[in-house]
Amino acid sequence: MVNRGGLWGSLPPIWPEKPETRLKKRSVNPSILAPISENNCKVDSFYGEYNVNLDEKGRIALPSKIRPRDEDGSPLQLTLAPGLDGCLTLYTPDEWERLTTKLNSLNYGGRDARLFHRLVFPKSAKVTPDKQGRFLIPDRLIEKAGLNDQVMVIGVDTIIEIWDPERYEKLMSSGETTGTFEEISERLFGRNSGSES
Fold this sequence. Notes:
Blueprint: H1 19-25, E1 49-53, E2 59-61, E3 78-82, E4 88-91, H2 93-104, H3 111-120, E5 125-127, E6 134-136, H4 139-145, E7 150-156, E8 159-163, H5 165-173, H6 181-189
Antiparallel strand pairs: 1-7, 2-6, 3-4, 3-5, 4-8, 7-8
């Protein structure tokens, strides 16, 4: 018997009506086939490095290529939080939900869990970019990340990081990266399957 799993589940030997008809019969919303997440935002990966200005009011404008939007094109409310290695991190609603779910699964009686909660939640902020992609970074986060009038915004797959350019360059060029791109890649993913160990 052929396994016809996946989205359609087990199918009978003869393909029935059109796929959208089958979806209706199974009470599945056909929109699940679209690249939209549970929170109605487009599921994107964010790429690139961008130099942007931090204005006197503490605002930056996200470059248009990495502005998270919902399915009708409106800007999403994002969560801005302290990031790792001295940056700030912007989370889409889905990514923030994943992080908080992991955090809430930790034993709050454990000291590290309590400290992590206290380091993240009190310093985080909800931000909604305007039509030009601008949003305000709270003073406490500007200070924490050491931001000045020029900042670097980088797309890192499912999150966006905001850096002081000098801090970012120092991190990426220093020994703190613990190896070249090739060495790090090999540690994470192993050698090519065709090469001998």
